[in-house]
UniProtKB/TrEMBL annotation:
A Pfam family matched in the record: SPOUT_MTase
Keywords: Cytoplasm, Methyltransferase, rRNA processing, S-adenosyl-L-methionine, Transferase
InterPro entries: Alpha/beta_knot_MTases, RlmH-like, tRNA_m1G_MTases_N
SUPFAM superfamilies: alpha/beta knot (SSF75217)
Function according to Swiss-Prot or TrEMBL: Specifically methylates the pseudouridine at position 1915 (m3Psi1915) in 23S rRNA.
HAMAP family linked: 23SrRNA_methyltr_H
UniProt-annotated location(s): Cytoplasm
Gene3D superfamilies: 3.40.1280.10
Gene: rlmH
GO molecular function, one term: rRNA (pseudouridine-N3-)-methyltransferase activity
Organism from which the protein derives: Marinicauda algicola
GO cellular component: cytoplasm
UniProt superkingdom: Bacteria
Protein name listed in UniProt: Ribosomal RNA large subunit methyltransferase H
E.C. designation(s): 2.1.1.177
Amino acid sequence: MRLELRAISRLKAGPERALVDEYLTRAGAIGRSLGLGEIGEREIDNRALSGKRAETEALLAGLVPGTLVIALDERGKALTSPQFASLLGRARDDGVREAVFLIGGADGMERSLLPAGTQLVSFGAMVWPHKLVRVMLAEQIYRAVSLLAGTPYHRD
């Protein structure tokens, strides 16, 4: 299953960029043996986009039918790390070919545009800076892949 992280705006060089790169590289290395492979990242330049609707359309552009869409949303469901890993593992085992994680802009995403079956996931009730959300998502992807591989990275 191919994994891709899509986010509005670019993450410039710095500690957040370094962490995202590190976690995605680690997840890709472990994930290959699990059928998860390398994890892609698509940054969407929002300077030419006007509003939440245009940003959501840009995030969804090019999705193939059958893609598992996981949108980060403060009103989404808060999952434990094992639940998040299970979500990815079930999708892989069910033959889903692609899972795409979406991080919207400052105003969020236009929910009415999200495909049916989109999973809304929250990192809690607090609002987080987009740079940190990307780091936390990359880390949780790495943690999920590690859990699926049976490594000792995650401890209850």
